[in-house]
Amino acid sequence: MRFDAESNLNAVKGRWEMARGDKDRIGSLTLGISPGARFGYSVDSLAKGAVSISVGGNRNLGGRNNTDLMLMCSLSKATVELDGAPVVRSGKYAI
């Protein structure tokens, strides 16, 4: 797997290269539901309309990905569709 970034790549790249196992598998997909949480702090994934995706480990969630790495990113204006129907559109729930 290859990845790149415009900035801060070195903060992740070394750790990625050292990790073994299922580091390149989807670990989780989270849709935030908390109207009181706001982006800009450690609770980004909880903010209403946030879409967070992780790669790597998910055994703490009951998954089977066996690795010592887990990377997660939360997006504030993402769109998610389920079977072609929008669930989240530009960070707002569509349902």
Q: Can you put this structure into words, describing what you see?
A:
The chain is mostly beta strands. It has one domain. The chain has one helix and six strands. The chain has one helix at residues 10-18; strands at 26-31, 51-56, 70-75, 80-82, 85-89, 92-93. Strands 1-2-3 form a three-stranded antiparallel β-sheet, with no helix packed on it. Strands 4-5-6 form a three-stranded antiparallel β-sheet, with no helix packed on it. A hairpin with a 2-residue loop joins strand 5 and strand 6. 16% of the residues are buried.
* Mean of all residue-level pLDDT scores: 93
Instruction: Give Rg in angstroms.
Output: 15 Å
Number of strands: 6
Please give the largest β-sheet: 3 strands, antiparallel
Number of helices: 1
Shape: globular
Overall number of structural domains: 1
Instruction: Tell me the distance between the termini.
Output: 35 Å
Structural class: mainly beta
Q: What is the strand content?
A: 25-35%
Output the helix-strand order.
HEEEEEE
Helical percent range? under 10%
Strand order of the largest sheet: 1-2-3
Low-confidence stretches: none
